[in-house]
Description:
The chain is of the alpha+beta class. It is built from 8 helices and 21 strands.
Amino acid sequence: MRHMRLKHITVAALLLLAGLGGAGSFPAAASGSGTTASTASTTVNASDAPASDGLLRAMRQEFGLTEEQAVARIEAERAATTLEPKARRTAGAAYGGSWFDATAGRLTVAVTADATPAARQALRKAGADVRVVEHSARVLDAAKTRIDKLSAPSGVASWHVDPAASTVVVTAVRDRLADNDVQRFLTRARAVGPVTVETTAEAPRTMAAGTVGGDPYYTGNVRCSIGFSVYGGFVTAGHCGQAGAGVRGWDGSYIGNFQGSTFPGDDYAWVNVGSGWWTVPVVLGWGTVSDQLVRGSAVAPVGASICRSGSTTHWHCGTVLAKNETVNYSQGSVYQMTKTNVCAEGGDSGGSFISGDQAQGVTSGGWGNCSSGGETWFQPVNEILSRYGLTLHTY
């Protein structure tokens, strides 16, 4: 940022410079004009309450909850997030997966029939519901890995393990289901293990477009959203820029360069921050909710609520639908993605997905929009941190 402007810049701009442009669900390289940093909300919730008033309000609107129910759900999701890795260890080879049941307000753990009575009792004692399923997570993950090695036609959108159904779900584009290439792929997929076929209205896509204003960051003629601050920079989507590419901020001044970038296969990158810019552990609420402090990166389970804030469509919430899903973009497949029913549009790419105060990932791609809805995927943030040896900037 230009030093001559430093003493005049608003708090909102500082937050955006920090590299926390929020979360989106579509790889947003460039799109229509959005709220600039200087007009974004600047209130940061620093209390010890389970969530800010703004986040509770958003959850009431998104899920039709009372304030008490929203608080209870956040606390239940935190408990499920903590329990999930312990449940995997307790069940051992009989582990079939797990998910958060919003109706029951607790984690459901799937186990195969050979789970020991002691393991089942331990899981229930820890607060989980236990469900017996046909296949273990190891079997389902192995089947998905074999499908990952197949060449998927454009009429196949994605595939992931569904622990509740104890199957690998392959999603095909509805009006392409009868295509010969799609049918051949499905035949080969069914041959490797338990597979169920579902359909979707559209194929997933990245959301690039031309630059039109002063939103989060730019590289070349592409605009994307900043993800999460790390010490020394920020993480974002790999399709937003190649390693070495220069990055400019909302005001056009130089921020840094892409230090690493991968797409397809993965969809993650990180950018170093300097030249008067700095990072803070905040995700912008864009006036819909208070700006959210980032306190960690504990992984939310399937079924948990999740929100994202992007530079185009700002703040929206939804639910985690699936983990470790392979998404088949036109540029190639991307692996180990998390699917949500949060909407997003062009320009939101690279932005933050957050559950409560826990960072979840950066927006990769999806289908639909924030008028009619859709589905979006994010690249889990812990994988990005591990890949580049980065440390998340937390409060």
